[in-house]
Amino acid sequence: MNEQLSDRTSIYLQISEMIETDILRGVLLEEEQVPSTNELARLYTINPATAGKGVNLLVDQGILYKKRGIGMFVAAGAREKILRKRRQAFVTTHIAPLLAEARSLGITRAELIGMIKEEQS
Amino acid sequence: MKLTCQDIVKTYGGKNALDGVSLTLESGKIYGLIGRNGAGKTTLLSILTAQNPATAGSVTLDGAPVWENRQALDQLCFSRELNINAESGLASMKVKDYLRLASVYYPHWDRALEERLVALFDLPVKKKLQKLSKGMLSMVTIVVAMASKAPFTFLDEPVAGLDVVAREQFYQLLLEEYGQSGRTFLISTHIIEEAAGVLEEVIILHDGKVLTVADTQELVDSARYVTGLAEEVDAATAGLEVHHAARTGRSKSAAVFLKPGQDLAPGHDVTVQPMNLQKIFVALCSGEGE
Amino acid sequence: MVRGIRFWGRYTLETLAGGLIVALALLVLSGVGAGAGSLPLILAGLPYYMAMGSALSILMVCYSTHLLYIPLVLSMGSTRREAFAGFLLFRVGAVVLPLLLSLVLWLLLPGQAAQVGLSQLPAVALPLLFAATLGSLMGLAYRRLKMLGIVLIMLLAAAVGAGTSLVFLGEVTADTFSALFSAVDAALVPSLAVWAVLAAADLLTLHFSLRRREVRL
């Protein structure tokens, strides 16, 4: 939460990502209430409908759930779900771009693996 | 409630300020109206609120004509940009008298909100309108718009003359009021990118015609800024809606709008970047390089 | 309708107040000019001064109605019908109130002058009626031809200036007014006829002008 929005991707996606990151970081705990769409809208100076779209995306994925008349809450097992989702996306979001950039720079697989080993130690 | 205008034409001295504008404004949304100076924004707002008669076309609220219709007009508020100079009739009117008049004429007027906002903006209520700075005049129009509590509220350049902090305050106020009441707001503004996030739908007016009406985020998501070698850019964008193409030597740039299901032709060495609303507006309305 | 009454009612009272202030000023000036005459005699002149003062006040307000009040209420969601009716209501009130005050004053004051005054009430009404109509016509003229409106205002200001100086110099007293109004009295019917024609022209022009009027603040 409280990160800045950028141009790089749809605003509602950024909202749902930010909520996910907060869940991973322990800023939002399971069974805790998430800020309402109006509160999110005011926080980021965006339209509540956009904030709502981001929240609904997480509801559809089972990461948040709605308590009628009260608001949105973090679902049990949300952390696990997010970790699994991000691990699956890791290939597309990080590995594929890495390989593409390496290719355009002429870095071989062996060189790449060497670089990774060095960076991790 | 729906406010609809159909085929609005407005002619001034032989020239069409508005040339066949048709729109439907639905309840409970924040709309943005953007367009270049002279595109017809203020004219359109004046006609939608029956303050000026259209040369042709109709404006209806839930099917009933708005013109001379007290019930319909009670649901509308047009807080227009105040440009007060020495000759203006309003010049020697005091702020508090202007607000008192508004409180008499707007049937849903919220006194408590008026007082809260006057205090928040530190408005010099005893001063004459002529003596106010541009920023202060904008705040007066904002107070009237908010306190009117009208189901359809129109603001013409509400942030003109406001510094960036005051502008942020305005957007916060707008979201707070919208969140509480679900009123419909239509904001016309030149400060596009700042307001973009707040606008659920955006109406782009160009040369008296509606260029596009779209969900803001969908419009932004559908735009791509493509750059690279001219031949590559052309190949990647073949068959797509291209605007504002420009060439510099061997390189070319173009703004592309993808329809649902469309995408750039794959396998071409081009840089693809997103475009924000302001850049989209410039690409569509600058009238160059099309 | 209520909001119309609240808006225009306030300006009716302000116009009346304006007229009274001018009247009292003229009264004081004429008292100075004529030397100390008997109080009832001086007071009996008040309605005449009030008529002139109110006429001036009404004229100014009707003139600025077109520049300010009508665009203002239209910008706040008034219908044109409402604006027309409100303006009419204002003018009726602005004419009737000073007349009522004059009536009461002349009924209460003793002496010959008051009696004469009573009989001249219709004549006193005339400047008020003309002011209400001419003010509006001048405002409409200004909207069409700015220059014309400005010229008319300047002529008016000159006339007022001249009149005030005459009162101050003692050339003009309550007697003069009385005589003036007697002359008007004699020409009452033709004068009313002229006014009626002007009033009809004003109302018609106003009605058609309002229908297509754009709000320019």
Keywords:
heterotrimer; A: 121 residues; mainly alpha; 5 helices; 2 strands; 63% helix; elongated; B: alpha/beta; Rossmann fold; 2 domains; 10 helices
Q: How would you characterize this protein structure?
A:
The complex is a heterotrimer of chains A (121), B (290) and C (217). Chain A has 5 helices and 2 strands; from the N terminus they run αααββαα. With 121 residues, chain A is mainly alpha-helical. With 290 residues, chain B is an alpha/beta fold. Chain B folds into 2 domains: 217 residues, Rossmann fold (3-Layer(aba) Sandwich), CATH 3.40.50; 64 residues. In chain B, strands 6-7-8-3-9-10 form a 6-stranded mixed β-sheet, with helices on both faces. In chain B, strands 2-1-4-5 form a 4-stranded antiparallel β-sheet, with helices on one face. Chain B has a 4-stranded antiparallel β-sheet with strand order 12-13-11-14. In chain B, α6 links the parallel β7 and β8. The two termini of chain B are 39 Å apart. With 217 residues, chain C is mainly α. Chain C has one domain. Helix content of chain C is 88%, strand content 0%. In chain C, α3 packs antiparallel against α4, α4 packs antiparallel against α5 and α6 packs antiparallel against α7. The two termini of chain C are 23 Å apart. The chains are: A mainly alpha (121), B alpha/beta (290), C mainly alpha (217). At the B-C interface, β6 and α3 of B face α1, α3 and α4 of C.
